[in-house]
Amino acid sequence: MTIESVQNEKIKKLSRLLAKNSERKKAGILIVEGRQENERAIRFGYEPVEFFISEALYNEALPAGRVHLVSEQVYEKIAYRGTTEGIIGIYKIPTADIDDYTPAADAFVIVLESVEKPGNLGAILRSCEAFGVDAVIVTDPKIDLYNPNVIRSSVGCIFGMRTYALTNQQTLDFLQRNDFQILTTFMEETARAIDETKLSGRAAICFGTEHSGLSEFWNGKGQNVLVPMAGSIDSLNLSNAVAICAYEQLRQKRT
After folding, report:
1. What is the pLDDT of residues 79-121, one digit of tens each?
2. How crowded is residue 62: how many other Cβ atoms within 10 Å of its Cβ?
3. Which member of 2, 59, 184, 240 lies 3.0 to 4.6 Å from 236 by CB, making a disulfide possible if both were Cys?
4. DSSP letter string over 97-152?
5. pLDDT exceeds 90 at position 236
6. How much is the average pLDDT of 18-40?
7. How confident is the model at residue 208 (pLDDT cuts 50, 70, 90)?
8. CA angle 253, 254, 255 (to 5 degrees)
9. Long-range contacts of the stretch 73-79 (C-beta < 8 A, 24+)
10. Rg over CA atoms, the chain
11. What is the distance between the alpha carbons of residues 161 and 170, in angstroms, rounded to a whole number?
12. Quick one: how far is CA 175 from the chain centroid?
């Protein structure tokens, strides 16, 4: 049976979940739209609850599990992306305990303090996955790590990344307990260029908010580094800065 009305109770419930982070958190679920994103969620072991699929738009084999078929018109009403691919999946949010993570001897971790923009977080996760970052820790998060815009801008890369939400103190304790080289990103004259900084053994770079940078909590907790620039501008977009540093650690490992 195909759902053809947005007044259907299942569609109304899905609309509430899409609209409110509090509703998703209460239900313990995350919502994934798009073919590639759902494929990655399934590949990395996320447990599906149900799917909403328009067969007029989705011309592949139906995924295993509970599937609700919807008309193309209904799907276009519930889709939050400009380009629709005909599939929305609902999954259980997995538990992510930092104590279950044993870093490799050369593990590289990105720490993001109070990141504010879902699009930036998604772009960062995409870069981190591409450059082999071992884990991303978001401290004192101001956004839902599984916000639909995070999933969309990461192109589903969040599903293959170790991602944790901790406090600053919990993060510092973890890094010190596991003998990480801690690097901070305060804009100071003593900062060392990232390409002149040896990222040996376990290393973590801490980035602050898009608006004001790292908080005083991280002051004095590690060596300051910066991305060298030749132009007149003195800062980069957060996601660009993270991408450059993530690539630099990969370059050092490969050479």
Report:
1. 987 666 899 999 999 999 999 999 999 999 999 999 989 999 9
2. 12
3. 240
4. -GGG----TT-EEEEEES---HHHHHHHHHHHHHTT--EEEEES-SS-TT-HHHHH
5. no
6. 94
7. very high
8. 95
9. 73/4, 74/3, 74/4, 74/5, 74/6, 74/8, 74/11, 77/6, 77/11, 78/6, 78/11, 78/14, 78/15, 78/18, 78/52, 79/33
10. 20
11. 19
12. 20
Read off the tokens for 2: 């195909």
- Distance, CA of 224 to CA of 188 (rounded, Å): 8
pLDDT in tens, 54-77: 999 998 999 999 999 999 999 999
Out of 35-49, 74-88, 164-178, 186-200, least confident range: 74-88
CB 80 within 8 A of CB 104: no
Helix (H) or strand (E) holding 192: strand 192-193
Give the distance from CA 143 to its chain's centroid: 11
Q: Residue holding tokens 């997995």?
A: 94
State how far the Cα of 153 lies from the Cα of 158, in Å rounded to an integer: 10
- CA 176-180-186 angle, 5° bins: 90
Read off the pLDDT of residues 105-161 as tens digits, 9 standing for 90 and up. 999 999 999 998 999 999 999 999 999 999 999 999 888 999 999 999 999 999 999
**What is the 3 state secondary structure string of 142-181?**
CCCCCCHHHHHHCCCHHHHCEEEEECHHHHHHHHHHCCCE
CA nearest neighbour of 32 among 93, 77, 112 = 93
